[in-house]
Structures are given as structure tokens and as C-alpha cells.
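Changelog excerpt

This revision adds worked examples to the README so contributors can see how folded entries look when concatenated. The first example is reproduced verbatim below.
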Amino acid sequence: MSWRFLRDLLSGVNKYSTGIGRIWIAVVFIFHLLVYIAAAENIWRYEHDEFECNIKQPGCENVCFDHFFPVSHIRLWALQLIMVSTPSLLVVFHVAYRENREKHQTQKLYRSPRKIDGGLLCTYFISLILKAGLEIVFLVLFYKLYDGFKVPRLVKCDIRPCPNTVDCYISKPTEKMIFLCFLVATSCLCIALNLSELSHLIFKYSIKCNLKRYIEKRQ
């Protein structure tokens, strides 16, 4: 899978972000995207072939693997990367709309089409809420699908067509567990950055509005 589009998207969004937003982009790019491409994808690549049960009953390994891993960790991680990065497009589209509108008007509509204020500020707020919300949704999804943030060495399966309870072994459980903990920690950091940026913007613009009202009242 090519991740060039996602990399270009994150690089483009960087131009319209605040300081905390740029840190979020760096975390997503380095700790999510690069780690996924460089290491995690290879660790889970042959997870089905390396999943072994102590019985050779036809179909038993397949149904047991599907039961314990309804969605591959790595595919869910890839989906999370795409979904969490997508709300940033809202800001890019809004800036593009402003710049296009400015071109077709004889008078200046905005002090700077890329300045985060007015409608663009609302769009930026929405994108931050969506990014934090999606991170939380995927963390809950990981927890529910895999019964916690852990990768067991051994699972016991008694699903048909297995004739009895069989032992199934997961390949490289320790290595997978390390990357899963890393994923959870990175997601928590991204949530904290999104909420910090949201709080920072709300505080900044509320102070600005109150100061403006105070000046107008004094005048």
C-alpha cells in the first residue's frame, strides 16, 4: 500500500496548523506512519500462516483464527491512520475555498485567507473534535475486539469444526504486544495534543473577544 498521499496531506496541513497542531502532525507522521511502514507491517504480514493449532482438522485453524482475530491488528491500525488524518482535509478545503473566493472578488474579503478566524476557526474546532473522537473510538474498538490491549501466547478454541478444545499458538506475541502498547500510547498522546490545542484556541479567542468588548465599552 502506498502512503504517499497521506504523507502529502499531513505536509500540506502543516501550513495551516498552530504550534500544537504541528507537534500532532509530527507524532502522527513519525510514531504512527513511519513505524507502521518500517516495522509493524512486517511483523503482522504472515500472522495467519504462522497461527498454529495442535490439531490438523480441516478448517479448524481458519475458524479459530477468525474468532480471535476478526480484524487484523495491522489493518485496523492502517484504517485508524487514514480516518484520523482525514478531518484535516476540512481545514485544507476551507482555506482553498477562501483563496478561490478572494480571487473572484474586487475587494479584499479576508486579512489573510489562511488565518484561523471566523468560519475557518469553527472548521478547525470541528476537525480537532473529530480527530480526538476517532482516536478514542479506535482505542475502544481495539479493546473490545481483542478483549484488552494484550496479545496472548496461547488461546484455547472449541469452535466447530474443531472436534474438541484445541490449543492455538500466536506467532511473536511479545513483539506484537510491544507494538500494540506503543500504538495505544501514541493514540493517547494524540488525544492529549488535540484536546490541548482545542483548549488553547478556546482560551486564546475567548480572551481576544473579551478584550475587544472591553475596548469597545471603554470607547
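The second example, added in the same revision:
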Amino acid sequence: GLELSVNNHAADFSLSTTAGPPVSLSCLVQNSSQAEELLWYRGDGQVDLKDGNKVNISNICVSPVAESDNGVTFTCKLARDKSVQVSVTLDVKFPPQLTGEESLQIEEERDVTLSCNAKSNPQAQTAWYRNNNTLILEQNRYQLYQTSEVFQLSIIKVQKSDNGTYTCVVKSPLGEGRKDFHLTVADKKPLFPKEAVIAAVVVVTVTVLFGIVARKDKIFKVW
């Protein structure tokens, strides 16, 4: 019976590739005795084809392949019977891309979260370092949160001893990325700042003096 093939695959398949180089997809009508029009779709959207690239054989090129193409499905369909189709899903391999540094200042006894955002395929593994040494994750002091793209380290109620450089290292079989966080722990501000207390005392003192001046006649009469 009539069927299609994409890159010699007659059933849906996954195509492994890397970001950068182009990928060509060729759809061919099999076992047809007449001219058959073909359609291409990227996800749910139809791909525009030139007139000479629609009948019995149709080629499309993804160039350049980007990280955002990972997981995208391309489907070739028979125009007169769209149930006849073959799909290919791109499996785009790329290393984690994580660089840079960030400086953070936080008061004592407050919580702070260090966040690394890094995509990769295959998924990367994460390690945290402090001053170039593996960070020992003390219970009730550190919390880790991780998804396929987000890696976070939270420090609970920071102390002056937490000063230092924290490094997020993200590794996959294709490479690694890293980001530094320079953490400075500042003195805890008093609940009532000294400047505010002094200002309040001055205001009260001036108010009392003005009150005494305003009532000086009555005060003198009493004396």
C-alpha cells in the first residue's frame, strides 16, 4: 500500500544531532502509481514549500540547528490523506552554557538564594563549591532545589563565617559551565537604627523647649 518514508524511515523516529550544523529531511512517497502532493509541518504549523518541492519527494533543511529545536517534531503528510504521515523528532545535543559572576551582600541572620540557570542536553549534573572546596551541605543550613534548567542553593540565616565565593559547576558529557557568587555578609541592622533614635530625641527635646517658650508667661506668673 501507499506509504511515506523520511530519511528512509517508514515509521516515526528520533534524530540525534548537535546544535550548529544543518539537518536535511527528505520525504518520499512509496508504492505510488501517480503524482502525490506532500505537506510538511513543524509542530502544528505548516511549512511553506516551493512548487517543485511538493510532488512524490520533498526536502526541507533545518539550518542552522539551534538549541531551541530540541524536541521539535517535523511531520511529512500526504496531502489527500493526512493520516498517511511520518514524524521525526529532533534530539539536539548541546553542553551547558553557564558563565559569569555575581556579587551579593546580605545582612546576618537573613536567608539568601544563589541561582544558576543552565539548559543542556543531555541533562547536566550540578556541584557546589565554596572557596574552591566542595561545599559540605550541613543539615538545616543549606537547601538545594533543582529542575532540568534551574539549580539553586539557599543558605539559611547567614553568618559572618559564610563570607566567601560560592561556585556552581554544571557538568554534562559534552562539557561544563560554572558561575561564581561573591557573598558578603554585613552586620545586622538594629531594630531601631541609632540615627533614628537620635533624631526622635532631638524632635522631642525641641518640641518641649518650644512648649516652654510658648508658655513662659504663665510659668513666670506661677513663680
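Reviewer comment on example two: The CA atoms of residues 208 and 214 lie 10 Å apart. The chain has a mean pLDDT of 88.
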